[in-house]
Fold this sequence. Notes:
Layout: E1 2-7, E2 16-20, E3 26-29, E4 57-59, H1 65-68, H2 71-76, E5 82-86, H3 87-114, H4 128-132, E6 135-138, E7 144-147, E8 150-156, E9 164-171, E10 177-182, E11 205-209, H5 223-237, E12 241-245, H6 251-264, E13 273-276, H7 278-288, H8 296-301, E14 314-317, H9 320-325, E15 333-337, H10 345-354, E16 361-364, H11 373-378, E17 383-386, E18 389-392, E19 396-399, H12 409-416, E20 425-429, H13 433-445, E21 451-452, E22 459-461
Parallel strand pairs: 3-4, 4-5, 5-6, 10-11, 11-20, 12-15, 12-16, 13-14, 13-15, 16-19, 20-21
Antiparallel strand pairs: 1-2, 1-22, 2-3, 7-8, 8-9, 9-10, 17-18
Amino acid sequence: MKIQFCGAAREVTGSAHLITLDDGYRILLDCGLYQGRNEDMENFNQHFPFDPAGVDALVLSHAHIDHTGRVPKLVKDGFRGNIYATHATRSLCAILLLDSAFIQEKDAEYYNKRNRDRREPLYVRADVKPTMDRFVGLPYGVWTDLRPGVEIQFRDAGHILGSASVTLRVKRQDGRTTTLGFTGDVGRPDRPILRDPHKLPDCDYLISESTYGDREHESPPNELDRFLQVIHNTCVRKKGKLLIPAFSVGRTQEIVYMLDQLESSGKLPRIPVFVDSPLAVNATTVFGAHPECYDSELQTYMLTDDNPFGFNDLTYTQSVEESKALNFLDGPAIIISASGMMNAGRSKHHLANTMGDPKNTIFIVGYCAPGTPGGKLRDGVEGMKLFGQYHELRADVVVMDSFSAHADRSELIHFLNGQQDTCQKVFLVHGTLDRMEALGEGLDRAGFREVDIPKLGDEVEL
């Protein structure tokens, strides 16, 4: 029995881990898209390090594209097994994969107009339906047979709607039972909307994310007050625009819910708020269809406000024309727009139109990969080239990692704590090397026997 690390190895994207059992049965954990500009990873999305037709089952931890974005290509290239996910993950994948296919098509079209050699999209929208036909929705907390001798259980990971940790319980050919846990992306306790992460069962081996393995987030109690302070400073005092680049799934809904709470309590100034992302609009509809994922606080809140994702001054924009019109708004406004890293989508256009005015604020509320516009802003850049033109940064930049949907160092260690007696080895994935090393030191001090940081392509015998 072995693990091959096929993605998110010393990287924070492209999650994929192939489990091969004693008799050759193969289970792929996640099948994510690499999102970044590392030249060493240029061909990652085009080629699998295994034969897709030889994979027997695919298990998805959650719907984010860096965990699911190559699933249609896997099916296109020969995968014929079932795709196991929670019910909410399946619902989100139905819209996220169509959106991803549209982006693949447009990227190829853009490239082919400017280059002599042709580039084909990884997959197209027509590839999504046969992919969705392979999904099998599973509930949380129930052991389910993938085949005789191989069981799977999802537990709520508290990261985004439908996110899950994965536990595989495998009866080996020699009669032993081996339990392998995969954290997926671990959420944070006491976050709005979702339940707290639910710990894994006792495991013999663990594959753990490490996105924020070297730092602690700002404590949640100060979050709403600081958010309101940023709104007042930008929109009331300076009469400027507050641009919040946010991922369409999870972060956007959380921010809208917080604004809804501020509006219901009378604390939110009377200023227009726009959610400028068609995908976020569709994702918010999916959120409304899965109240089984809500925490008790939101369920109680809905007794007095049955729509936690809408209020009087909030507008969801769909069309390109509506989006462009936001560039010519007079007066203060809050604009929530994808992508969260500002490397694509409408938020990149809003950044170009926002960053040169000192009245405005760019409010970064999540992880931004190095080299992306968001990553550059986090690193203190004084300006950047966007759409072929240099833009000087005059707007304020505010970073609040407390909005992160990823557990920080202490929260990850707490999530894994209790596994020391049974766990023979922890494999750290989904993080940069410096963050993995810091988390590894923390796990070592917490009493874990062995922590490994595999490289891309490494195979490990269990």
